[in-house]
Design a protein that fits this description.
Rossmann fold, seven-stranded mixed beta sheet, P-loop_NTPase, membrane, two-stranded antiparallel sheet, 380 residues, GTP binding, 9 strands, 2 domains
Length: 380
């Protein structure tokens, strides 16, 4: 360990840690493009559950493209002004958008455009030559999804014809049909024609693993499919802290000094709460960790690890009562999985608060996950 000083949770600054974590999140850059009236704002508002152009600070980066970013938002949005079909602006739109994306491609990875959501209003019942030209050229630089918006304004044959217009221009799995119409979204039969969930899953998979966390932190996930994806991808966060805990205990620690690992595990807890967007003040987060999570960990370790350490972690020295790298990793893995599962359950059903779920279920989940070895090959 770098220091032999015991960790005192009373001195842990949750607010400072949240600020540090925010600064460390790698933000995906998303450009939303398309003609005026194609529904760009509706897409942003639905996916993120709020209007990022009003929450984040905006500044022009070209004549017609604005960047929206904020320390409190884990994505950077680039919004193009669009164009009126047949207007003089239409002649300049292609070069403006392409020039911006190609220029970004020549810069460092964090400055590039990682995703383009290209919107086309299905109600116009046409895909313009400019749309096709732009989509082709954008695909040379980055991942592009085409979103047919306002599909409630067309019938199935018309929608199929629109999709066929893009044959040979981009893959079928990169074409999405979306609507914010409550009539469609609240109708189980009609909702099957809406691709919001598939859009999010596709978008996440197009990103480098280091950028996926940012998008998942910001999406307004409601469906079981999206929440399961978010739960699965959290394994990458947990694995990072598991590795840190293993390194911290490379030299075996007396069990009595296991508290030395607490900073790693507390920070992981804060990170997971932030990732899931748990709505709690800094003081409440500290209370949840200090009064709920840590005591339950202590109780479980006392009755389980010391009695069954050889069973759970072969090679650990139970007689000497030491915490080695294997045990430290296993403890951290179990804490991470338990918090991740509780946050997932809270997102699926908010009838119980996160505090109630932690009090009622954390201990049993932690004990359950202690029986699992950390998986370095967990899908991310």
């Amino acid at each position: 360990m770098e220091s032999t000083k015991r960790f005192d949770f009373k001195d842990y600054d949750v607010k400072a840690e949240l600020e540090r974590l925010r600064g460390n999140v790698k933000k995906p850059n998303i450009l939303i493009a398309g003609a005026t009236g194609a529904g760009k704002s509706s897409v942003v508002n639905y996916v993120f559950g709020r209007d990022l152009t009003k929450v984040a600070a905006g500044e022009p980066v070209t004549r017609g493209i604005h960047q929206y970013t904020s320390d409190d938002i884990a994505v950077t949005l680039f919004d193009s002004e669009g164009y009126e079909i047949g207007s003089a602006r239409q002649q300049h739109y292609e070069e403006e958008v392409i020039g911006f994306v190609e220029n970004a491609k020549r810069q460092e990875a964090s400055k590039r455009i990682h995703l383009v959501w290209y919107t086309i209003n299905a109600a116009t019942k046409r895909v313009t030559p400019l749309d096709k030209a732009l989509i082709r050229r954008l695909r040379e630089s980055t991942a592009v999804a085409v979103l047919f918006t306002q599909i409630d304004q067309v019938d199935l044959d018309e929608l199929t014809a629109l999709r066929n217009e893009l044959n040979g221009i981009l893959p079928e799995d990169a074409i999405f049909q979306v609507s914010i119409s409550s009539e469609i979204l609240n109708n189980e039969t009609l909702r099957q024609y809406v691709d919001w969930e598939r859009l999010i899953v596709w978008s996440v998979e197009q990103l480098d693993a280091s950028l996926q966390e940012g998008l998942l932190m910001e999406i307004h996930a409601e469906s079981e499919t999206m929440l399961k994806l978010k739960r699965k991808k959290a394994n990458r966060i947990i694995s990072g802290y598991v590795a840190s805990a293993g390194t911290a205990a490379a030299v075996p620690l007396p069990f009595a000094d296991a508290v030395a690992l607490t900073p790693i595990q507390v920070t992981m807890s804060v990170h997971l709460f932030r990732y899931w967007g748990v709505k709690a003040s800094d003081d409440l987060l500290k209370t949840l960790i200090g009064s709920t999570i840590i005591p339950q960990i202590g109780r479980t370790l006392s009755k389980t690890i010391l009695l069954n350490v050889m069973k759970f972690f072969p090679g650990a020295n139970a007689a000497a009562g030491v915490i080695n790298a294997t045990v430290a990793s296993g403890i951290t893995w179990a804490i991470g999985l338990a918090i991740n599962e509780i946050a997932y359950r809270n997102a699926m059903d908010s009838s119980k608060t996160i505090e109630q779920l932690l009090n009622q279920e954390f201990g049993s989940l932690f004990e359950q996950y202690l029986k699992q070895k950390p998986k370095s090959d967990q899908p991310s």
